[in-house]
Design brief:
The protein is mostly helical. Helix content is 74%, strand content 0%. It has helices at 8-21, 24-34, 40-57, 63-82, 87-90. The longest helix has 20 residues, at 63-82.
């Protein structure tokens, strides 16, 4: 019988995705509590994909799971490229 409890890596992945899915106000509160900048969420997602690639190489993670994580990061990157970056652009 195999243990179905999540690994430390799986738990961390879920925490990263949960943080990314929070409403903006909650995200801001969380990063302030952690004492990091708001870019930490995107950095964690990037780290998540890089570490997942190593897990795939070690055959600890299916390639399909890596592709799902990459798709999340791609959406974040797309949003970051298209959002207004200046106070004037924000209206």
């Amino acid at each position: 019988m195999t243990d179905s409890s999540p690994t430390r890596f799986q738990t961390w992945i879920l925490e990263c995705l949960q943080l990314a899915a929070y409403p903006a106000e909650r995200q801001l509160r969380e990063v302030r509590n952690l004492g990091v900048g708001v870019d930490e969420i995107a950095l964690q997602l990037d780290d998540m994909v890089n570490i997942a690639m190593a897990h795939v190489a070690n055959e600890d993670l299916p390639t399909a799971d890596l592709e799902l994580l990459r798709s999340v990061l791609a959406k974040v990157d797309e949003y970051d490229r298209t959002r207004p970056n200046t106070p004037a652009a924000l209206g």
